[in-house]
Records
---
Amino acid sequence: MVKNTFIFVLLVGFVFLFFNLFADFTGNTELNKLAGHYAESGHEEVGAANLVTAVVVTYRGLDTLGEVTILFLSAAIVSFLLKIETSSTDDRKLRTTSEILDTASKILVPVIFIFGIYVFINGHLTPGGGFQGGAIIASGLVLILLAKPLRQISQKLISIVESISGLSFVLLGVAGILFAAGFLDNKILSLGEFGTIFSAGLIPIIYIFVGLKVGAELSSIITNLQENQNEA
Amino acid sequence: MENLSLEIVTLITGIALLLIGIWGLLTQKNLIKMVIGFALFDTGIHIIMVSIGYVKNRTAPILDQAVKTNQAAEKIVDPVPQALVLTAIVIGLGITALMLAFVLKMYQKKKSLEINNFNDLKW
């Protein structure tokens, strides 16, 4: 009873907190100064048609580096907690995979991988980018594991892809200090013609590495969670 | 009802999701349901952030044929909250995966998902 009252009071407190936000909220009609600057000169300074990408990769590239680090950390802790024991994979009771799932996974997985790569290569032009593309690649891996639950995904390959792309991301950032204005500046390469695939300087290259890294990290989380099911 | 514009609707949705998430976190006994409550909490905050960055009658911050570069400042919404939400989604995913790994480990220890069975630290 005391507990229920406490929960109720806490919820009412949250309602009160957010009611203040809601009561004064009228919606914006103008961009604020910072967003106005990004909108007006983003295409000259960064050269990316997708301004969200310009903010994520260049204006606030350091935040993205921190974000990738957090994702790496959580993937590392998951694989530390759920160490894979290779001996215990035999005694799992599995249902046979249906013909539809088996065939569909064979046809769809390459398409999903190519779509993921498309999404992160075009991250500076269209909605999408490294994180989204990496998530799409990992979803292709989920389809493989649904169709063939006992299939071994090479942890070695995942960790090699992950380390190389993470290291390249940091090195490209440091190259920005040496050859351009600062850490993670994208003007090392020329900005190119606005709106084409070879534009926005370093952004597509950084996003390819981010995509590979995120894809590898999510894949490692998924394989770790998947291969631990039988011990439960 | 005529003043019920898009950003108000999304703001209400976000706050409602957030409250459902907190309620789930506090009342559910099943560990998986608590993780789901946390994910709802997370999603609610994302929706609130995006709705605060919305500008009336404008479009996504992507420059193309529809939004020319010289009139971008009059046509797009604020890109900064969207970039922040992109970051927040990825971190939320990492945290959810971490919580699920803990839940899996706890289940292997006690063969139970009920939070009441984990009273080793209770005094």
---
Amino acid sequence: MFEGYSLAELGSIFAMQGFAGLILFSVFVLMALGLAIIFGQMGVINMAHGEFMILGAYVTYLCSNFISSTVPALFPAYFFIAMILAFFASGALGMLVEWGMIRFLYRRPLDTLLATWGLSLILQQVFRSVFGAREVGVVLPDWLMGSVAVTDTIEVPINGLFVMGLTMAITVVIYAVMFRSRWGQGVRAVMQNRTMAGAVGINTEKVDRYTFGLGCGIAGVAGSAFTMVGSTGPTSGQLYIVDTFLVVVFGGAQSLIGTIASAFTISQAQSTMEFFLSGSTAKVLTLLTVVVILMLRPQGLFVLKVRR
Amino acid sequence: MTRNPQNGLLGRIDGDVAGILLLAALLVIVLPLGLDIFRLNMVGKYLTYAFVALGLVLCWGSAGILSLGQGIFFGIGGYCMAMFLKLEASSPEATKIQSTPGIPDFMDWNQLTALPWFWEPFHSLTFSIVAVVAVPALLAFIVGLAMFKRRVGGVYFAIITQAFAAILTILIVGQQGYTGGINGITDLRTLKGWDIRTDEAKLVLYFVNAALLIGCILLCLYVRRSKLGRILVALRDKEDRVRFSGYDVANFKIFVFCFAAALSAVGGAMFTLQVGFMSPSFVGIVPSIEMVIYCAVGGRLSLLGAVYGTLLVNWAKTMLSESFPELWLFAMGTLFIGVVMVFPNGLAGLYQQYIAPRLRRPIVGRAKMPAAAAPIIPPHTAAD
């Protein structure tokens, strides 16, 4: 598959595809971080996670339209406002869903899966009724347009760079919240041993609700970032949900580092192969490899050692 | 041992057999008399999904293994049948305008000049029928062996089977030349020279399908009544205890997964025959999880419930998408949430809770009297 390319060309191809893979990686990481918190920490399968992401994307879209028509002066910075709004919109919906549905189903993970799938169908139809079936895109502010030429053959788009930077920042924030704050300590305590955590005075129901909300809120931010690199339709979320679940499971469900490592591996493998093979073959090969590895090593790449 | 054979076992056999007879009467007498051939063919199509739902009752209801990839097996079964029918429809005479006569039309459009090797055996009907059951069962065996032997179950199993459904769809869509791509295998005409597109053929196929379904229900009933069936329930409820009792839990799980796969595949093959095509839209994530809801609506623990659930959901889907297409997803979503949160045992659960006690009262009242008069010989303990 490498015939006909000179070494320098191959280098550029790998660099460009590697960068395309990094954008995919960013979307994966942002989706998967929220899912890793919900699935890895709480053991809840949220099939509607993609729709929470799309909600964030639509909030960003509305926000960009609103700001460009009312206060154009703010337009260069609209993205940051939109991101915060997306976080709170998705997070609030997540908390509502937890309160109305998920909290009754903690002992029945398979049923949660079906119920959240139902939720995702409803949300998809809501999006379709409100925003129409066609995909929408946002107008990027000027400073996000264009690309940086690294060498003569390698060009890097700025919006991609921005999304990557954003991903890194969000990852750091989540790490700090989960592993360095007292609240995160409470979350981890509840997930490791619910009864004991309750016994030492942690309000486990409240922790559950906020954890679920946080996971969904991050999905909203992911959606916000997603508008920078792609257009949004009512069913866009569903395209990513299987991949994201595989990312989380492959990384080892309880390890955030594992999630990031597996998102990196999967996205890089996919986008590098995409250049040489057709897109569908690349995807099949990637997913198949992941599934086979998971069969051989069901606990995933990184395992959190917990005494049970 | 059943403590109270007169009421327990006998009553149960009567109930199940009566229920199956009732279903058989509905399928073979009432529906063919009451519906025109177009609607009957549609019911036949719904009934092919009931095979999948039956498999899920055993796999998910009895054994607690939720597979989100039953569409894979439905699809493979359907594709095996479709490949045979397509080859018959692509005889050199019928396809002489192609640049390579004798191969299916979509291969010709994709510049293939020879039949791929894995299509060759599908010239034989016997091979195709064996493949309908054997290929999905083998695939399920491999997946099951890899997963259950490593004690992967529950949610992980569901996610991985779902990933397989996604992989297979992408593969079928991507490999157009070999599989017909997104359109699937279409334009199927005859089965050994017998035109399957006529109304008479559709009627015959409907009856074949109904008979097969009743046969499969009896088979499932047999499995559930056997010792194996009870072990499945035991491992669903307390897997570790079954393991400590000396059973190899994985083997039982593999068996029931393969069995469910084979049932789904029979449904898929009947689907192809009755509807006349097979496409990746019956393989992927969405159809696979919809098949789970058919089973859940009917009642995940009830074989007959699964059949009625399948019919009901599909009927509602057709009605709603004909008149209010935008409402269908809302209805479907609500169904998913409602069936999980409000009535987890589905229609069968509602029936047992509200209707069955009213029906049973007069019957049991009569049955109890002779039982009280002659309590000495419990007639059915030998069968237990």
